[in-house]
Specification:
mainly alpha; Receptor-associated Protein; 3 domains; 16 helices; 76% helix
Length: 403
């Protein structure tokens, strides 16, 4: 294979060229053996359209990121250099796409970039929260602790996702079956019964009239409805990708019943843990909160924390500021921080806040998982009952007329 490279020699001169090798690692070894400092190394082979199409299906599972983070954290705690750790992880990773991503990060680190800068070049793989935590740790020199925290956090997040997904499998199957049955009845069963009802002159229930009208409407305009729904989904999706749209969607989630409180607790855990780690590492409180505002992953909280950082720089207290925003930070947070400010142990109190709300998140998820299944089953059962009642009641009334 042919690879295009950019590199600098020992004198610092930029060199651009091509190198032939079996794979990227072999190409990097060749360049390194010539005492070249690699800046970029990309395949120069032209991909056919089919290969470019297959790139769409190159996915890295969230679970693979969790495993990578835990393995990286373990190697960091063993005092193995970052570049060596990344090369070792690249060799043992089975997913070829993730292997390529890790190799790119290792190459960029070897070329002089920091780990966070190298990861910023992979925005489809590493989240803003992930990269910001690495960047914060680089300020304090506690990268191993940050990787351990990220590994713990991602493992817990994966557990929560799996629990919710497993709890939703059965209700999802029930919902799909209900939609199929409802679609068949509205599209095929009701139109067959409509002439009979009209000829008999039987008074139809409101629900039956609605479903009959819906069936006629869907048969006439189904294509237009699909196009409108498709356009609506695309427009909403594009809007929520804009800065304004992200803020609006995140604010709506925070105000949503049940899920809003759960989201707030998750963001408080992120804020308290990242800020506590930074302060413990010697970063001033104002700067630590400013950095935390970029790691939290929510535009609303980021704005509040940015204002909190300015407030502290003007001589104010963090607890006083957060007490004004009880919609986002529960009163316990500001009370615990006030104790930390009074004792000079704000970093320890922030870690305690993080641990407390981590347990709260676990309990909330457990309760949510237990409630979702029976609640959805009751709702679906009621819908199925209404659907069949819409058919059976007119038939019963018709039989009474015939008698």
């Amino acid at each position: 294979m042919k690879f295009k490279y950019q590199a600098r020699n020992k004198e610092g001169e930029l060199q651009v060229g091509f190198v032939e090798a079996v794979d990227r690692e072999a190409a990097a070894r060749i360049l390194t053996s010539h005492e070249l400092f690699i800046l970029s190394l990309e395949s120069a082979e032209k991909e056919n359209p089919f290969a470019q199409f297959l790139k769409i299906f190159k996915k890295i599972k969230y679970q693979e990121i969790v495993v990578f983070t835990r393995q990286f954290a373990t190697l960091m705690q063993a005092d193995i250099p970052i570049s060596d750790s990344l090369r070792a992880l690249s060799r043992q990773t089975k997913n070829p796409y993730l292997k390529e991503v890790i190799f790119d990060i290792a190459t960029n680190v070897n070329s002089g970039l920091s780990l966070s800068q190298a990861m910023e070049k992979q925005p489809d793989v590493f989240s803003e929260f992930y990269i910001s935590m690495i960047k914060s740790a680089e300020l304090t020199g506690r990268l191993d602790e940050a990787m351990s925290f990220l590994a713990d956090y991602l493992e817990k997040d994966l557990t929560i996702r799996n629990r919710i997904r497993n709890a939703l499998i059965y209700p999802a199957i029930v919902v799909v079956l209900f939609l199929i049955i409802a679609g068949v009845m509205v599209a095929f069963v009701f139109p067959q019964l409509k002439p009979i009802f009209e000829e008999s002159g039987v008074k139809l229930p409101t629900m039956t009239n609605f479903l009959l009208s819906s069936g006629d409407f869907l048969k006439e305009w189904w294509l237009v409805i699909l196009i409108i729904i498709g356009l609506f989904i695309v427009l909403i999706r594009e809007y929520f990708r804009t800065p304004e749209g992200k803020t609006v969607s995140q604010e709506l989630i925070l105000r949503f019943p049940v899920f809003g409180n759960l989201s707030k607790k998750i963001y408080i855990v992120r804020f308290a843990s990242s800020t506590g780690v930074l302060i413990k590492g010697g970063v001033p409180i104002a700067q630590a909160i400013e950095v935390a505002s970029h790691t939290i992953g929510n535009a609303v909280y980021s704005e509040v924390l940015h204002e909190a950082s300015d407030h502290i720089r003007r001589g104010g207290m963090l607890s006083d500021f957060l007490s004004r925003y009880e919609d986002y930070f529960f009163p316990l947070v500001s009370q615990m921080i006030a104790i930390g400010e009074g004792t000079g142990r704000i970093d320890d109190l922030l870690i305690k806040v993080s641990n407390f709300y981590s347990r709260e998140v676990d309990d909330a998820v457990s309760n949510l998982v237990e409630l979702i299944q029976p609640l959805l089953i009751v709702i679906i059962g009621a819908c199925v009952g209404l659907l069949f009642a819409s058919v059976l009641l007119p038939i019963y009334n018709l039989s009474q007329v015939i008698r």
